[in-house]
Amino acid sequence: MRILHINTNYPYNVLHRNMIKAMPAGEAEHFVFAPVRKGSEPLPDTTPNVYSPVCYTVADRFLYFNKRRKLYHTLEKLLDLRSFGLVHAYTLFTDGDIAYRVHKKYGTPYVVAIRNSDVNFFFRWFFFLQPYAMRILENAETIFFLSDAYRREVFSHYIPSDKKESLYRKTAIIPNGIDTFWHSHVPEESVLENRTALAAQEPLPLLFAGTLDRNKNPRAIVEAMAILEKRGVKTRLTMVGKIKSKRYTERLLQAPGVTYHEPMTQAPLLEQYRSHAIFVMPSYHETFGLVYAEALSQGMPVIYTRGQGFDGHFPEGSIGKAVEADCPEEIAEAILTIRDAFPSIQHRCLAASQRFYWEKIDMAYMEIYKKTYGKSIREGDE
After folding, report:
1. With a cut of 50, which residues of the chain have pLDDT below it?
2. In terms of C-beta density within 10 A (0-12 exposed, 13-18 middle, 19 or more buried), how is residue 65 classed?
3. Which of 89, 283, 314, 330 could form a Cys-Cys staple with 323, CB 3.0–4.6 A?
């Protein structure tokens, strides 16, 4: 099998490099079209069969069809598109458009994913493109979501009633994986015992790891800490991540009990996971949230947002608590609930993290690839 992956985010994110590298050897040849924006700095990559031509500019971002035509024509000149039996598009509005163009001209079947940028940018603000998005989805063989929460949101708000049943039948839920570093550093029992002791002490140590901005919502954690303080429960919060707005974070970093660290590499971040009791990140929008899975790999309970990417992967309360992003009172209650159930919840977190091995995830993709590979263009398709 020769499979073409279209992924415009690939040059700037290691996530899908790990996915491609973990694909079962000998099952298929994987080729990645990963176009680069002029003037940008893509991450270095040595993965074979990755093509990253510089072929669009910042200005193209605002010219939807013009940018997609550029990308498609570059791809067509770069690779023999007749040689592929399947295309995997990693976003709907950008990568899916290119896959649809390949499908229309060559009859190649494709699968497509719907991600955060599709839901919270294109669907929301580029509403005039929604009929075109429906055409891409209708001609796709499979529609991937990272979580059931995002599938529910898309089908509730953006899929027309007359298309819901037929499109829903084509959906599949496949989460992201986490780097092998986390799986190869499973905490010993002594680490779990130490964290249990931390959870029984005050101030209760909380951890946030992510971009410090309005979407990731660290302010709600600080407000929850103030609520707990009034109830006689002392907490402290370590925030690790990039500051996007000094204006937004200035008062947060001065709040009682808050410590800030700049973004960390894996090894020091591992120590942060192991030296805190509860991971808290009540984002407003989250396609998946790799940091939740990383925390689970260290036996760390998590507090995440109800209805967003991580919600629905596990039964409520089994590995943490789902909360409303704009409700500090609920976040405070979730912290207390996890604290009181701490001895048993850690081992469930460790077991749950097994779901996020790339090798297991890639096997799920391969099963779908095999069922789809080489299907001819459907009758009546345009």
Report:
1. 377-382
2. exposed
3. 330
340: CB partners within 8 A, 6+ apart:
none
169-193 tens-digit pLDDT: 999 999 999 999 999 999 999 999 9
Closest to 130 in 3D by CA, of 121, 139, 122: 122
pLDDT at 344: 84
State residue 237 phi and psi, 5-degree precision. -130, 130
What's the whole-model pTM score? 0.89
pLDDT given at position 60? 78
User: Which pLDDT belongs to residue 120?
Assistant: 82
Closest listed residue to residue 291, CA positions, set 276, 306, 307, 302: 302
Query: Residue 376: what pLDDT?
Result: 54
Rg (CA), the chain: 22
CB-based contacts of 382, cutoff 8 Å, min separation 6: 104
From the number of C-beta atoms within 10 Å of its C-beta (0-12, 13-18, 19+), residue 64 rates as middle
In this prediction, residue 379 carries a pLDDT of 36
Tokens of 285: 């929008």
CB neighbours (10 Å) of residue 48? 11
**Residue of 255, 291, 256, 254 whose CA lies nearest to 276:** 291
The strand ranges marked E within the chain are 2-6, 29-33, 36-37, 50-51, 54-56, 86-89, 110-113, 142-145, 171-173, 204-209, 235-240, 258-261, 278-280, 302-305, 320-323
Q: What is the DSSP string of 267-286?
A: HHHHHHHHT-SEEE---S--
In whole angstroms, give the CA distance from residue 139 to residue 377.
Answer: 9
The pLDDT assigned to 325 comes to 96
Would you call 313 helix, strand, or coil by DSSP? coil
**Whole-angstrom distance, CA of residue 222 vs CA of residue 236:** 9
Domains of the chain, each with CATH number or no CATH: 2-177+358-372 (3.40.50.2000), 180-356 (3.40.50.2000)
